[in-house]
Amino acid sequence: MPEQEPEPTTAAERLRRALFRPSRKQVVAGVLLAVLGFAAVTQVRLTGTDDTYSGLREQDLIDLLDGLAGTRQRTEGEISRLEDVAAGLRDDSTKRQTALDQADAEVDQLNILAGLVPVTGPGIRLTITEDDGRVELASLLDTIEELRTVRAEAIAINGKVRVVAQTSFTETDGGFLVDGERIEAPYVIDVIGEPGVLSGAIDFALGPKKQLEDDGARVQVRELRTVDIEAVARQDEPRYAVPGEGQ
User: So what family is this one in (predicted)?
Assistant: First the structure.
């Protein structure tokens, strides 16, 4: 039986066969293309997530690190400077407050010494009673001076007159005028200071107590923990003196 010749195939038929029944070579080529595609995608992803500095040269990285170190040093230097400024301000504030406190203390001390404010503190009460005679002005003045000598901080007589450096004493009938204020016996002198020292300034031999007793007076000295002096000195406005320039 004679062999039949194969029917000729059309181009469409050949394409259909190639698609639905691929040859071995076509399969191998497809696998290679898939592997290459996967590798390309992976490289793109790795490149996209790479660090920003990966493309810099070594010298560029060194320069960058040096710049960062310099910035840190400048920042630390500025912080140190600001801390020094703050410490200086605190120090200035402390010095200013110390100066103000010292000035206030000096004002208070001057007000006390000038007799311008009521005061309280330890001291003595000296009571002079005229029994057999009259107290002489000189004896009263010596008593005041002895108390001042031992640093009496405040003196008042009969609770009415504050005795200060410029206080005037004048003898008058039945008593004395102290800064124009009349006082009469018994004379009660309140003094603030060290009690033992103040009483010693009155009691020593041939001292004020002996003088007053020679005048015919009786003298009593009491040391007290607290002496209250309410009397303040009279302030006279200056008639001639004015502050100097720059004061």
Answer: Belongs to the UPF0749 family.
